[in-house]
Amino acid sequence: MIDYSWNSTEHCPPCFYGSICQLTTFYYSISLESFLYTSFSTVEVLIVLIFVFALGTVCNFLSIATFAQATAREMGSGIYRLWISIVGQVTLVIVTIRLLMIIRKKTSRWIDCFVFDYSISALVPLFYSLTVCLAVERIVVAYKHLSFDKQQSRRAAKKLIPVLMIYHFVLALYKPIHRQLRVEFNRTECSYHFQTQSQINFERLINILHLILPILVNFFSPLILIVILIEHKRSLKPTATFLSKFVDVVRTYKHNLISPLLLVTLTLPHLLITLHFHCISQSKQNIIYLFTYTLSLIPFVSTFFIFVLLSPKYREEFSKLYQRRY
After folding, report:
1. Higher pLDDT, 208 or 95
2. pTM of the model
3. In what residue span(s) does the G-protein coupled receptors family 1 profile domain sit (predicted)?
4. Angle value at C-alpha 9, between 4 and 11, nearest 5 degrees
């Protein structure tokens, strides 16, 4: 009788796990195949997964409905928010289907391994790239102030979003090439197989950059925003103290400062699971890995809270939508 538990991990080389040490997260990527080895009850996992999916779907559709209004897309930022919500929902749907198939079937299939995993590997970095565009536009708006051109911003967003989509989906094309289905003891598993060290290094680099760069941009963008806005205040109120200008900026623009920092906070589980658990060496890491992976889905669930409820402008847009509905 083959032992499919993660206890077999203790007999595997460093960074490998599975019944015969055939799986790895060594490439700084999240492995959904880990759920093949979950020690949790199927019912418990399904309840959590369905709850996350239902909550995320409601929030994303409310967010999409808000930004689908023309008045909410007067600037590029509204277009970025719309597509962040759309990409977040599509990612949530594909991840949920992928996990349901793994949990229920306890095996992987061709469409899971090559289609769903490919889509996830392109959609997740696309989601974070769009948040970078939004953060950069906030800085541009603050810097240009009254000279900011809304129409030009809209045109730039409409051109940049397709470019980002093409970039991420084309760049991810190499991933299915290095995927393979292994049949081990009546179970089919999807795993990576790289032939050269340069291929491994490229995979690691891409996975790290697509996660680290958005976190850095979203973390430092509020700081840059504060500096720019304080400089504007200095020109308007030269006699005011630095502290008073700082407090005024934070009070007035707190929604623009909180949302990127909140996004960074919600992305930390993804960063943790990618960096800290890139080398699974102990079976007890199973529970922490799966719990952290669940937390890493939160950014795709919380778009309505981050991009609508935190912003006075878009709260008003949502209120208009609600009023028209009733």
Report:
1. 95
2. 0.84
3. 59-307
4. 110
Which CB contacts under 8 angstroms, 24+ apart, belong to 28-31?
28/203, 28/204, 28/207, 28/208, 28/274, 28/275, 28/278, 29/121, 29/192, 29/203, 29/207, 29/274, 30/270, 30/273, 30/274, 30/293, 30/296
The string of DSSP letters for 53-92 reads: HHHHHHHHHHHHHHHTSGGGGSSHHHHHHHHHHHHHHHHH
String of b and e for 123-143 (b: at least 16 CB within 10 Å)?
bbbbbbbbbbbbbbbbbebbe
Q: How far apart, in whole angstroms, are the C-alpha atoms of residue 282 and residue 9?
A: 6
Write out pLDDT tens, residues 11-66: 566 566 555 565 555 554 556 666 655 555 667 777 888 888 999 999 999 999 99
Strand 16-17 vs strand 23-24: parallel, antiparallel, or unpaired? antiparallel
Distance CA(100)–CA(187), nearest Å, equals 16
Rounded Cα–Cα distance for residues 272 and 293 (Å): 9
Q: Pick the residue with more confidence: 98 or 185?
A: 98
Alpha-helical runs (H) found in 237-304: 242-252, 254-275, 285-295, 298-301, 303-304
DSSP bridge pairs for 191: 180
**151, containing H or E segment:** helix 150-171
173-180: long-range pairs with CB below 8 Å, 24+: 173/118, 175/117, 175/118, 175/121, 176/113, 176/114, 176/117, 176/118, 178/203, 179/113, 179/114, 179/117, 180/113
Q: Which two tokens stand for residue 199?
A: 């291929």
DSSP assigned state of 107:
S
**Residue for token digits 């060496």?**
281
DSSP letters spanning 184-251: ETTEEEEEE--SSHHHHHHHHHHHHHHHHHHHHHHHHHHHHHHHHHHHHHHHH-TTS-HHHHHHHHHH
| DSSP letter (8 states) at residue 307 | I
CA-to-CA distance for 12 and 35, rounded, in angstroms? 18
Domains and CATH numbers, the chain: 13-317 (1.20.1070.10)
